[in-house]
Design a protein that fits this description.
It is built from two helices and 22 strands. It has about 325 residues and is mostly beta strands. One of its GO terms (cellular component) is extracellular region.
Length: about 325
């Protein structure tokens, strides 16, 4: 049986960094009043420290050592978030790859879901995903097709991670300025791997943003965060992390394009490459029924992961 998803394309303007509500590159240290620790209910083993041995820019970053189990969780962050559209950009570095277990590395208290409920960003089945605590829905669905629509988080290197939460319930997500199709949902968006997510009418309304680690099994990890920006407009990977800095504005726009996908029960087939089509680093470039770009932009090559997914690395 064949399943086809519709072509989706949306352009999002990236506006000047000056519109940021709050940002920090931690070069002046870690102000724990402005960026407090957040560990609801319990904290047994997790810790947050200022680290001067590694950084995306300058010399400082924030290091989070997360322990296994729910009470090993610990975060830091800010409740200075816009009342409307929310954009969050951080550079992050993970010491270990995401596994099959459910974990969170960013969490947002979300009153729209109820008291003490969160909108979470993390991983499961080795890919990036969202989790809505109130009904445990995931974006994308954790089917083989849903897993293939997201990406893995690289380890040992600084990655630019950005997301958007809209007042209409829209969610968009970028890794190194490349849109992630499976982590995109909203009015007018066709995402065949968002069935569980869209069954609810809840529109997220984050009241704060926290960065760290939470594990619902035994997984532990160390994450570093730097050049964080919380804004009401798109920042992009070129925007700085210091409210006092004067940085060059990011490119004028970015475009999200997801390709028509056909799924069959036969063996994986090589898809036809669109003319002039080159997939960016970390993008999908092959897999069962995949019909998008199968050529990677230089200097990356298409690496096989499983029958459902190959990635530009």
């Amino acid at each position: 049986m064949f399943r086809k998803t519709a072509l989706l394309a949306s352009a999002v303007a990236i506006l000047p960094f000056s519109s940021a509500l709050v940002s920090n590159d931690f070069e002046s240290g870690w102000d724990q009043t402005a960026w407090p620790i957040y560990a609801p209910d319990c904290n047994q083993g997790g810790k947050v420290t200022l680290d001067s041995t590694t950084a995306h820019s300058g010399k400082n970053s924030i290091r989070v050592d997360g322990a296994g189990g729910y009470c090993g969780h610990v975060f830091f962050g800010t409740d200075k978030v816009p009342s409307g559209d929310l954009y969050v950009r951080t550079y992050l570095k993970a010491s270990k790859a995401l596994t099959a277990s459910h974990v969170t590395f960013m969490t947002m208290p979300d009153p729209a879901q109820g008291t003490k409920k969160h909108l979470r960003i993390g991983g499961q089945n080795s890919i990036l995903m969202y989790n809505r605590e109130s009904d445990d829905a995931t974006l994308p669905d954790l089917s083989p097709q849903g897993v293939a629509a997201s990406v893995a988080l690289p380890t040992g290197s600084w990655e630019c991670f950005e997301y958007y939460i809209g007042t209409d319930g829209s969610i968009e997500t970028w890794l190194n300025d490349a849109a992630i199709a499976g982590l995109t949902v909203g009015p007018g968006v066709s995402n065949p791997n968002a069935g569980g997510w869209t069954r609810s009418s809840i529109i997220p309304k984050p009241s704060a943003v926290y960065f760290g680690w939470e594990s619902y099994g035994g997984d532990s990890n160390t994450f570093w965060y730097d050049d964080i920006v919380v804004s009401s407009t798109r920042v992009g990977c070129s925007g700085g992390g210091n409210t006092n800095s004067t940085t060059t504005a990011p490119p004028s726009s970015t475009t999200l394009v997801t390709s028509t996908t056909t799924t069959t029960n036969t063996a994986p087939a090589t898809s036809t490459t669109s003319s002039g089509c080159n997939a960016a680093q970390w993008s999908q470039c092959g897999g069962l029924g995949f019909t998008g770009c199968t050529t990677c932009a230089a200097p990356y090559t298409c690496k096989y992961s499983n029958d459902y997914y190959s990635q530009c690395l």
